[in-house]
């Protein structure tokens, strides 16, 4: 087949330059029939058979092939006949023709049997239906590309959409996302449609029946909505929210947003969702926000309390005051440690519980084999063992991030006394973090250094002054005090002393 440019060259050579076909054939090295077709039309003419290619050997077997092709329409998509399998079956029946002829016939027949997908137009009532789906998107977090999991819930009537990002699609993220969405919508839709996602479905049974996760059933019962699950492979059953995932990815996250953490990313996404209220969807009479205002009163009311959407685990304390969850170790306050504790895992935080008391909270890590240590948890232990100061891992991690003035205070303490006493006193100053906000302690240390009182008592004095700046004493009276003129001139008796005090008090 010749190119468009070759076709043009042939036509110019013949019609404008007046060359013969033989000359063109000799100069351009094209065959006679190629040149004739180029001269006949400037458009490429695809090759077509003047009549269907005869396949006499296939004739007796066409009816059998047709029946097999009809039968396979009821079979699972991944277990239908391949063309080669049909060839083998017909060959076993006595077919002696080529596989290419059979393949050509099967392709034509399947094209005739295939029905274009046609969907029923749907109409939703306010507050009745919503759809949920997960998607993925890349963002730049702390300077690195991170693949975030996008939770999307879409109200079917108003098309109002809620988007939230997580590091994972685990059940605790699934529950947390729902609660945030219900808060965003101001209520709970009556029915929510899902894929067969693991956070909700344990097993897919026959038809639309599902064996649901027990905690999902409890969650659904708490918010009093009904769930519906799509037929596997039939994504069009929740096409609205799938479009919502695509829309959010292309409109909210292009270009790639640069964020510190998931909190900033989700604040960004929420703002985009609110701005989307101004958009008017095709064939809708009003904007998304106006339609939602109509829909919101029809949603179910939110319950008085949120669902406890965390994952709970019983954990054991190791010799270093840590508990393990998903290969990561989280510290526990030394003074509240006990062998058996409870760990609660939320999407973005870890809580460690003793009885009903939350004794420790950490940012949840999704890396592996990390030590997540709070240095404050080890300060009481360090006060007992100041010799471990220079090598204590929690303190080393803290020293990498604390203000330089902490190092300056430690240096001045060491200059004024021996190192052992200096470290012990410095640990006592650090323990102020157990009772006061970090910013207050930092300001107190800064004032102590400025006023040249770089020691524990100096820091405490500055701390108290910051907490209570009003003076606790009366101003001295500078007026003459005649009744005091004779004080100290003669020995006083006790009655005289009492009288003097009464005079001063008056």
Number of domains: 5
The biggest sheet amounts to: 6 strands, mixed
Count of separate DSSP helical elements: 18
CATH class of the largest domain: Alpha Beta
The averaged pLDDT comes out at 86
Query: How much helical structure, as a percent, in the residues?
Result: 25-40%
Q: Gyration radius, to the nearest Å?
A: 40 Å
The CATH architecture of the largest domain can be named as 2-Layer Sandwich
Spans of at least 5 consecutive residues whose pLDDT stays below 50 are: none
Structural class category: alpha/beta
Percentage of β-strand residues? 15-25%
Cα distance spanning the termini: 120 Å
User: Per CATH, what is the topology of the largest domain?
Assistant: Nucleotidyltransferase, domain 5
Assembly state (oligomeric): single chain
Extended strand count:
15
Give the overall form: elongated
What's the name of the CATH homologous superfamily of the largest domain? Answer: Ribonuclease H-like superfamily/Ribonuclease H
Write the SSE topology.
Elements: H1 4-15, H2 21-28, H3 32-40, H4 62-71, H5 83-93, H6 99-113, E1 129-141, E2 144-155, E3 161-166, H7 171-185, E4 191-194, E5 201-204, E6 210-212, H8 214-223, E7 226-229, H9 239-252, E8 258-259, H10 262-275, H11 288-295, E9 311-316, E10 322-325, E11 328-331, E12 340-345, E13 349-354, E14 357-363, E15 371-372, H12 379-384, H13 393-399, H14 404-416, H15 419-430, H16 438-450, H17 456-467, H18 494-505
